What does this fold into?
Amino acid sequence: MSPAASPFATLIARADAGDSSAKDALFTALYGELHRLAESHLRRSGGDLTLGATTLLHEAYVDIAGRDALAFPDRNRFFGYASRAMRGIVIDYVRTRHARKRGGDLTFTTLDEEHHGLAPELRDLEGVSAALDQLADLEPALAQLVDLKFFCGFTFAEIAAARGVTERTVQRDWAKARVLLRRFIDDALMRG
It folds into this structure.
């Protein structure tokens, strides 16, 4: 283990053991990278959200810090989890905003209007999220790769180094993940 990785590994171990001060220190140490991750999620949401990156980051932190049984054996898994938490928050935010635009949580519509009345950005976000959830059920490592590459912005070389494989292996896994995601999204569109 390199000296630079040791403090991070120690923080992770202490946070995994339930040390709340270690969770806070971990959050502080990674704040800049997590903020860039939050900005990436907001850019990819496709809509003009009034939710800011700092707010998204802090809401994700509250979600992560409030869970006692989380284990992050390495930095990539921590970022993957943070990315999934942020994705869920963005989807919930868009869903809530859309409900308010339509008059609140209680509206009377026909089934056809309800299905076709969803905002395009909400349909897209929910479709991608559902496809990622399906991928995680089928191939958890591929879903983590998508989170690290697409949402966290890691390069193939960074992911390969963290996994201890070649960059070409990561690229093949990326191609496989994209094919599976496309299939899940297309299947959902065919059913919908």
Remarks:
- The chain has one domain: 5-191.
